[in-house]
Amino acid sequence: MTTRTSQLPPGSDRRERLVGIAAHTALVLETNNLRGGKDAQEALNSLKRLIARLALQSLPPQSLAQWVITHDGLDPVARQALCALAGRELDFVEIDTLTGYYDAKNVGFDAVDQGRCQYVVFADADCIPCSHWLEQLLVPFAEDDAPLAVAGRTSYAPSVAGSALTAIDFMYFPSPLRRGATRNFYANNVAFRCDTFEQYRYEPLDGIYRAHCQVMGLRLQAAGVAVVYAPGAHTEHRLPDSQGEVLKLRWLRGGDSVGLTPYLVRAYMPGWLQWLGRSGPIGPLCVMLGRLGYSLRALNHQDLPPLRGLRRLGAMLVVIGMSLLDTAGAVVRGMGISVGRRSAAHSEALSYHRNLD
Questions:
Q1: Is residue 90 within 8 Å of residue 82, measured between CB atoms?
Q2: Is this prediction's pTM over 0.85?
Q3: Cα–Cα distance measured from residue 299 to residue 320, given in angstroms and rounded to the nearest whole number
Q4: What domains, with CATH codes, occur in the chain?
Q5: Under-70 pLDDT residues of the chain
Q6: Which of 119, 192, 112 is nearest to 151 (CA)?
Q7: How far apart are CA 347 and CA 99, in angstroms?
Q8: Which residues pair with residue 67 across a beta bridge?
């Protein structure tokens, strides 16, 4: 694969190179996960809290070449207020209410001016980044052996339940392609060279709710494109606002394992086991059992405060309980029974407005 050489002067020090990279970087922020909730004002307040936090980054977003926000109805007054909070001009791209999460990522990228931008950073409006998130995400691009893609670390809050759910939802598997690389990434915290994302952008996947980035990770690995893992680029994902929505999320994620199983089987299983990709509920059940074992082993290995004694036992019970719920969704979906409103699964929005400040 042909890549462009760095536009930064070879003799500059690391900080200068980093600032130069920021000057050639676009930030794409999608707001799909703010659609759920009481009203548009609630979504706007959540977005304002996030932009105020982003404006305090150690590498300020004002230094970026471009900042794109996708939305489905911010009025001119709201847009002006957000620009004032960000301390810079923002490019707003309006999408319709049926545009899905990953489609919004692609649409946001299409608005990036590639004449100015060599890199693109993707973030979500329902995640709260640490103060040096942006800097740490771009640092690998300033190295001599710069990668084509960088994945940051996403987690839930460092509580018993948050640690348990992080072990289920945000796994990072070492890649054989390069030391310090990961096989997978999450679309809420990742950066690419623009030409790399243009080539491998998110594909439409029928009946899958939130696994497109996992499939893209498999395609990148098959193409020999290493995704460097930057654990210091940490962002904290909100949980849905209500317990009912948490259960709904588990059900949808469990159903996703059915659509994801054929891709996993093709990538990792020998030829004589390829039948698992079309085995109804059997393949997804195997995937869920394997995930349960990995999630239990991942506790206290996620760069979160360690859990000891009863807290660790509690986290293990949460992992088991939530995994059983996910597995139920996987088995039911694998039997051909609809899990939720699958025809609208991509655009279906939960409510993520917890104030983490």
A1: yes
A2: yes
A3: 12
A4: 14-241 (3.90.550.10), 244-344 (no CATH)
A5: 1-12, 33-40, 338-357
A6: 192
A7: 6
A8: 27
